[in-house]
Specification:
This protein is an alpha/beta fold. The protein contains 11 helices and 15 strands. It folds into 2 domains: 95 residues, 2-Layer Sandwich (Nucleotidyltransferase, domain 5); 193 residues, Hexokinase, domain 1 (3-Layer(aba) Sandwich), CATH 3.40.367. Strand 1 and strand 2 form a beta hairpin. It starts with a strand and ends in a 6-residue tail after the last helix.
Length: 317
């Protein structure tokens, strides 16, 4: 039986697997920077596994998708469904936003796939907002009943401050970048931006990576790292609360991506939930909305499988 190539393409990593006979094969990860073009990585994966029977593909890409084409926001790759289909001899290729694919996984999550942060009770019939800080900041919304996903580029909406300290940070970043989106602080690079802004002028290079900042904050080895991660959690709460209000997400807000699952306990102790609910006259509304961290490994593939099944034998672009 023919198979379907599934791919989750981000700014840092490209993950591939084959879906065949209702079974998902092993997921293989390649570094995006190691290949000049997306098609090079696709060729390598398919060639390595001798998957000559692959005749279609569903690809999640970290960027806006239009007419089957996506230029990654945080990498140089371009995913073009027509080009990939022609190059690999596939009868159908579907390219979707990566958060659209992730949101398709929402109805398939089980309790062990998520970790609750704070209270609230989900309403199964109401929308679920999904936010994913990683290399970038993705955002989408799953609408129950219709099994429909609203794709979004909300991560690039203008970032607002709640405190004077945050206002100072945003002002500094505005001088550096011009426009300061939520992604400028809620991503791997965003965490580095926060650390850099909070560091003493006497701090010498090299600037630590986001992974090093998280470790140093949790281990208590760096006060600057702790302050940066505290501010990250607070900003995340504010942006998550904004998403809940924007989408009317009575079904809850899910936080995915590469950062949040590593700091679940830290988030529980942080100002995240306070800032999530802290929306003035709508505080009581948000107090009932649950927030959960997606801890399931490679959750986007659960959504990619759902898309492949939904499309059936004849996928529509």
């Amino acid at each position: 039986m023919s198979g379907c190539l599934l791919a989750d393409i981000g700014g840092t990593k490209a993950r591939f697997a084959v879906f065949r006979e209702s079974q998902l094969g092993c997921i293989e990860t390649l570094a995006t920077r190691d290949y000049p073009h997306a098609i090079d990585a696709i060729r390598l994966f398919l060639g390595r596994h001798h998957n000559n029977d692959i005749d279609r593909a569903v690809i999640a890409a970290a960027g806006p998708v239009k007419d089957g084409r996506c230029k990654l926001t945080n990498a140089s790759w371009i995913l073009d469904s027509s080009q990939i289909a022609q190059d690999r001899g596939l009868r159908m290729v579907k390219v979707v936003n990566d958060l659209e694919a992730l949101a398709m996984a929402v109805p398939h999550f089980v309790p062990s796939d998520v970790a609750a942060i704070g209270g609230g009770h989900e309403v199964a019939s109401e929308p679920v907002a999904v936010i994913a800080p990683g290399t970038g900041l993705g955002m989408a919304c799953f609408v129950p009943g219709s099994e429909r996903v609203i794709a979004s580029e909300g991560g690039h909406a203008t970032l607002a401050s709640t405190t004077d300290d945050e206002a100072e940070i945003i002002q500094l970043l505005r001088r550096r970048y011009g426009h300061v989106s939520a992604e400028r602080v809620l991503s791997g690079g965003g965490l580095v931006n926060l650390h850099d802004a909070l560091a003493s002028p006497q701090t010498l290079p090299p600037i630590p990576s986001s992974e090093e900042i998280v470790r140093s904050a949790i281990d208590g080895r760096s006060e600057t790292a702790r302050r940066a991660l505290d501010m990250f959690c607070a900003f995340l709460g504010s942006v998550a609360g904004n998403a809940a209000l924007t989408f009317g997400a009575g079904g809850g807000v899910l936080i995915a991506g590469g950062i949040a699952p590593r700091i679940v306990d830290y988030l529980r102790r942080s100002a995240f939930r306070q800032r999530f609910e802290g929306k003035g006259r709508l505080q009581s509304y948000l107090a009932h909305v649950p927030t959960r961290i997606v801890t399931r490994p490679e959750p986007t593939f659960l959504g990619l499988v759902a898309l492949a099944r939904l499309a059936g034998g004849e996928m529509r672009t």
